[in-house]
Each structure stands twice: as structure tokens, then as C-alpha cells.
Write a structure and sequence with these properties.
Elements lengths: L8 E7 L5 H10 L3 E7 L6 E8 L1
Antiparallel strand pairs: 1-3, 2-3
Amino acid sequence: MFRNQVAERADAWLLRPQLGYAETRAFYEARGFLPLLEFRQESWAGPTLIMVRSL
């Protein structure tokens, strides 16, 4: 089914506040991820940041 499909991007969803959030964000930024969207989800404690990078 997915044999000939190629991924074009990778996503990372970072939930805040968490211990080590700054270190986690720095980890993804160092690997080329860029912030795309920050939003609040009622079912999660705090905002969520979606970071993306092309592959």
C-alpha cells in the first residue's frame, strides 16, 4: 500500500509545560526543525508546539 510513497517532511509535537522543554526544543532546532504552529488543546495541559522539517 505504501510501497512507492516517500515522506516529504517530519513532524515533532512538543507539549508544554514539561520539564526539559527548552532542551527538547533546542534538540529539534539543531536538527533543522522549524516552529510551525502553537495551539492549545483542552485535553492537554498547556500549549502544544508543532515543529516541522523537510526530508
